[in-house]
Specification:
By secondary structure, this protein is mainly α. Helix content is 78%, strand content 0%.
Length: 475
């Protein structure tokens, strides 16, 4: 590869190295600052106070008084069971319901009759409460019923048992909701706020972001290094020879790649500027670098020079490292509401794996059609018109141009150099698809499964880049 192209990539790599050095220095400074804060006497005192206050709450909740109250409730519930002869509170209430007619005939009191009727109607509600995890709610309902029974039926053993449960539940409720616990929790909250103020929550957030960006820079540098090695091995005169590439398409491929490389160098120079501060690191670092690697890999795979197995293994390693926690293309399509396109992608990959007659053309045609559908889903005509009325973004028929669609997809990043890189990247990819679709002198497809697999890598990477850029609009 000629020196100008290598110089562009060298510049990009030097920008990455400088960025990594800058962020490493910032990380070191932040770590020293936080370390000093964590070791300060004031912070230690705050943590000690919180620990002591939590111990107070723990001891309060485990105090003999609370334990005794809970034990008494257990004893009272056993008394209720023995009084009615039931094994559960649900059975007890059912017995009360069944015996209501007997009590009504014996007492003859209309008020008692009304009360027992209400108990009958509410038995199902109380029965469900018996299985509830909320003891307080159940006891509150029992309290209401016990007051009614007490006023009408006198001081029976059942009424006394329910009254004692009521008293114990009120004591526990008052202890749990006591101002002492509230004060302790409020004090703990204040101490936590003191710690956040002392250290600064933003410091931890900034530190996390800086660490993530440093890792992203390291991965980007690895990708750029692999791209540079591949470019060094690549000879311009060999590009396309393995597939008998037509001269006009060969020249077009090289020209578009050269434009893409220059655009990447400009993007790398500006990615540390304030313009991209809010942009996720992988969107401005790893993914553009991976796009360059996949483009060079496509040039390599159609050239006469045999591939270096060690370099190819390293490429696969870095692909896995960058994409390991990310969903596949099928799930990405589902995430953007394009479930109907999953079948098209599956059909394309099945054609690739089948290696049937004309499978290379079928595969490349499917990719081109799928790309058109995806970019239109990410940039619907109506939404573009609502976003901009610039006549330059629409063709003679009033349809949005590809430039308009890309500007719409990239509107959250909103930088000409970033949009220019995506545009050049798409142009290069579509040029490769044209090559695999119609760009050789041979009637029969000269393409190998390995060459088509590299095209698949490039297509997936490009679509992922577009979708992730589009999703950033909604973050």
């Amino acid at each position: 590869m000629d020196s100008d192209k290598l110089e562009n990539l060298n510049k990009a790599s030097s920008y990455t190295v400088n960025s990594l050095r800058l962020h490493t220095n910032q990380l070191t400074s932040q770590m020293d600052t936080i370390k000093g804060l964590l070791e300060s006497p004031k912070l230690t005192d705050n943590f000690s106070r919180i620990t002591g206050q939590l111990e107070q709450i723990k001891s309060l909740m485990e105090s003999p008084k609370v334990t005794d109250n809970l034990n008494r409730i257990t004893e009272q519930s056993q008394q209720i069971k023995s009084l009615v002869g039931s094994s559960s509170l649900t059975d007890t209430l059912s017995r009360i319901t069944e015996q209501s007619q007997q009590i009504r005939s014996l007492v003859g009191s209309s008020s008692l009759t009304d009360t027992l009727s209400r108990i009958t109607e509410q038995s199902q509600q109380i029965r469900s409460l018996a299985g509830s995890s909320s003891l307080t709610e159940a006891l509150s309902r029992i309290t209401e019923q016990s007051q009614q029974i007490r006023s009408l039926a006198g001081s029976s053993s059942l009424t006394e048992a329910l009254s004692r449960i009521t008293e114990q539940s009120q004591q526990i409720r008052s202890m749990v909701d006591s101002s002492r616990v509230v004060n302790i929790l409020e004090n703990s909250l204040r101490q936590t706020e003191d710690i956040e103020h002392l250290i600064g929550a933003s410091k931890f957030t900034d530190l996390t972001e800086q660490v993530e960006k440093a890792f992203s820079l390291v991965r980007t540098l690895r990708v750029e290094n692999l791209t540079q090695i591949s470019l060094t091995r690549l000879k311009l005169e060999d590009i396309g020879k393995s597939v008998l590439l037509k001269d006009d398409l060969r020249i077009s491929l090289i020209t578009n790649f050269d434009k893409l490389l220059s655009s990447y160098s400009r993007l790398a120079k500006l990615r540390d500027s304030e313009t991209f501060d809010a942009v996720p690191a992988e969107l401005i670092l790893e993914q553009p670098a991976l796009e360059m690697l996949e483009s060079v890999s496509l040039l390599e795979v159609i050239s006469e020079e045999p591939l270096d197995k060690e370099i190819e293994a390293e490429k696969n390693d870095i692909r896995r490292e960058i994409l390991t926690d990310r969903v596949g293309l099928e799930q990405l399509l589902i995430n953007i509401g394009a479930e109907d396109l999953v079948g098209m992608w599956q059909g394309a990959t099945e054609a690739l794996e089948s290696e049937r007659t004309d499978y290379a053309r079928h595969f490349s045609v499917s990719l081109r059609e799928l790309f058109t559908h995806i970019i239109h889903r990410l940039s619907p005509d109506k939404e573009i018109r609502n976003w901009s009325n610039n006549s330059e973004l629409f063709d003679k028929e009033g349809k949005p141009t590809r430039k308009a669609r890309l500007l719409f997809i990239c509107r959250a990043v909103n930088h000409d150099i970033f949009t220019d890189f995506i545009n050049k990247d798409i142009t290069a990819m579509l040029e490769f698809i044209n090559l695999f679709q119609r760009g050789t002198h041979q009637v029969d497809s000269p393409f190998t499964p390995q060459q088509l697999l590299v095209l698949k890598y490039k297509f997936e990477s490009n679509i992922r880049f577009l979708i992730d850029t589009w999703r950033f609009n909604n973050e």
